[in-house]
Amino acid sequence: RRSHTTVSYTDPQVSMDLLRAVLQPSFNDDIMAVFKKYQKFFEKGAENVKENMGDDVQTDQLIREACRNALEHAKQMFPEGEGKRAGPEVTMKRSRPSDEDCG
Amino acid sequence: RRSHTTVSYTDPQVSMDLLRAVLQPSFNDDIMAVFKKYQKFFEKGAENVKENMGDDVQTDQLIREACRNALEHAKQMFPEGEGKRAGPEVTMKRSRPSDEDCG
Q1: Which 7-46 residues of chain A touch chain B by CB within 8 A?
Q2: To pair with B31 at 20 to 30 A between CA atoms, which of B4, B20, B47, B76?
Q3: Closest among B41, B43, B65 to A13, alpha carbons compared
Q4: Looking at A38-42, A86-90, B48-52, which range is the least confident one?
């Protein structure tokens, strides 16, 4: 019996995501280099929070969450549905909640 | 002692997110500079997809989606730990060795 786990190479999104996956490790390195620039700010901020709120604050988690949120908000530079459409002019501007924690 | 108030200023996550928001514009610039490195790959890929699939493929949207996906996957460098809220029931246990991820 054959399994149905084949990748759909006819799906534009899937094709692009394969490319994205190939580039991801290198991209991650570059992103991490960027974060190093901001690390001291996040560390300082997390330490301040810990000072103000008490020792049960986990600074490592706060910093990681801030990093994830920064990445989430950076997505707004690449908004969905604002491209040139080939067909009749349709504006499908979807705003996604970016405050959500996509962990 | 932490008081159990719902005022947002006492929320560690909110405090950190204020800091994140301040840094975001500069961070975005750096992220965009990183993407410029990969832009040609995404463009080439999107053009290939368009060639293979037809003219109704919107390369701009494909590229932006790839960028968003790259950012989404970059979050995995900053994994969520357990006990993400600093509340009374929080335990300090941590099952994943991810402390050094943000630095």
Answers
A1: 10, 12-13, 15-17, 19-21, 23-24, 26-28, 30-32, 34-39, 41-43, 45-46
A2: B47
A3: B65
A4: A86-90
